[in-house]
Amino acid sequence: MEKIEHIGIAVKDLEKSNALFAALFGKPHYKIEEVESEGVKTSFFDIGPNKIELLEATKPESAIAKFIDKKGEGIHHIAFAVNDINTEITRLKNEGFIVLNETPKLGADNKLVAFLHPKSTNGVLIELCQERE
Ligand code: ZN
Fold this sequence. Notes:
- By secondary structure, this protein is an alpha+beta fold.
- The protein is 23% helix and 38% strand.
- It contains 3 helices and 8 strands.
- The chain has helices at 14-25, 63-71, 85-94, and strands at 4-10, 31-35, 40-47, 50-57, 74-81, 105-107, 111-116, 126-131.
- Strands 2-3-4-1-5-8-7-6 form an 8-stranded mixed beta sheet.
- The protein is globular and about 40 Å long.
- It binds zinc ion.
- Zinc ion binds at residues 6, 8, 53, 77, 79, 127.
- Zinc ion binds next to β1 and β5.
């Protein structure tokens, strides 16, 4: 795995949170993107070598809606950049981690992504992401 690519934060109201985090960071988000298939709307902030991703649910059955119902707003996942997501999925499976989607899917920010089940990672949802060519 390479660096932390971004930290994902689940929020109830993306517009309000964009203003809040812009005030915190002293700069605005640089993009908003909806991932229809995941039922989320995201915004991204550039913080040095890493990013912060805010996620708002766009439908009640979205994973973000369920997360907020259960735990409230807050850190939802940590994403790590990988060079070869398929190799990394195989390696992590062999190490005993539970991979939620063994076939990488298209995520926000033009990335191929896969997630590890938090019950195999001390309660932290881990995202692997590889830049798409
Ligand atoms: Zn993410």
